[in-house]
Amino acid sequence: MQATSHQFKDNVKRAMGDAELQASLSKIKNGFVPKRAAAAAALPEFETLRDEARDIKNHVLGHLDIYLERFTAEVEARGGHVHWAPTAADARRIIIDLARESGARTITKSKSMVTEEIALNDALEQVGIEPIETDLGEYIIQLAKEPPSHIIAPAIHKTKEQVAELFLRHHGRYGKTQRLTEPTDMVREAREVLRQKYLDADMGITGANFLVAETGSIILVTNEGNADLTLALPKRHVVVAGIEKLVPTLEDASTMLRVLARSATGQEFSSYTTLVTGPKRDGDLDGPDDFHIVLLDNGRSGMIGTEFQDMLRCIRCGACMNHCPVYNAVGGHAYGWVYPGPMGAVLTPALIGVDEAGHLPNASTFCGRCEQVCPVRIPLPRMMRAWRTREFERGLNPTGQRWGLGLWAWFARRPRAYRLLSRTGAAVLGRLGRGNGRFRRLPLAGGWTGVRDLPAPEGRSFVAAWKADGRPTAMPISPTQGTTGSTKS
């Protein structure tokens, strides 16, 4: 996928003007959000599980080399093969070599964001191998030749009418002549088309929700069962996963699974939770003859030990974007690369560079809802601020923005000058805006007034009201409060 993160503002304008997209995005706040809240409320120990999940991932990241070695040894002891891919290009090369070695002409795939990250489908098509997405959402966007707009609901931006039109256009060779109108009929038709694809595939590719170091197993979580057919029917199964997907034990995996589905879709558990440990053994009725795991780094190891390490705790549930007011307003394609929403605003600059993706960490209201609902308590707002700092330090911001920030900083370091400027500015704007109480245009504020009115100041400032009511001018520091600003979570 060609990154357009640097065109975020233009992408946003198109998204805001797309009436069909805006209608589709309403499905998020009316679906995922209340379901997640209900699932969390129904489990008394949910907050404790979040703490445990965070601690499990922190432990793994602190000992990642040990767990990678253990996982590799367990996979190989059970007849599997592990391949190391430092970059996306390495991963593509390894997978294409495995496909050619098995004589593959068609490959079935289950939904995998990491294969989107390495642009695998395009690479396979360029060498004459047909990839077939089997997750319904991924299948829809493959027909539309579009990237996913959400990490768990890739076609959430599509209306049922758009899907019906896609099916009519692409399924005509199967004798289809009428446009469908009901979602259940569309699902049935997709199953009929894909059924033979499963049987004909020469190789199957899946991702992995978790990699278990203790047993060398992978864990796949789906609601359609397509991953099970993808891995079990072809002779060769290839797993592509980031190195951060490790958990130490099956018990730890159980903890992660208890927060994953509740955070993602509001289910207690997804419909299918599949453990795969190596290739088919003697006496097994089904399963692949060959089992390969491609472990992708692609910049992840470079995040270890930095202020962005916490991002590697992410379990790809999508809760942050479901609750994000920015994502809900513009959708996933506006972010211009594989990972949208708050998690993408942190991860994308780490993987493709802040010079390419600097707009994304700036596209945040810092309302904190993403961190509030994250099942592994990732401090996403803090890391977005860290990217903004790096962007400023490298001089990547527009000149006007840098000048404005520098001027504000000068006043902020001089409280008396800051208070004088605030009082004077508020008084002047209050008088100028007295007529209708707002400004439609204002010099140096075009970023705001271009899309909304600016209220005119009125009444006292917060500080003035605070002092007038006899409140203390500074909050006392608790004796138990640290001086570093760090918190447990």
TrEMBL record:
Domain 4Fe-4S ferredoxin-type per the UniProt entry, residue ranges: 305-335
Coiled-coil blocks: none
Domain of life assignment: Bacteria
Pfam families for the chain: Fer4_8 (PF13183), LUD_dom (PF02589), LutB_C (PF11870)
N-terminal signal peptide: none
Keyword terms: 4Fe-4S, Iron, Iron-sulfur, Metal-binding
NCBIfam families named in the record: LutB/LldF family L-lactate oxidation iron-sulfur protein
Record-given protein name: LutB/LldF family L-lactate oxidation iron-sulfur protein
Species of origin: Tistrella arctica
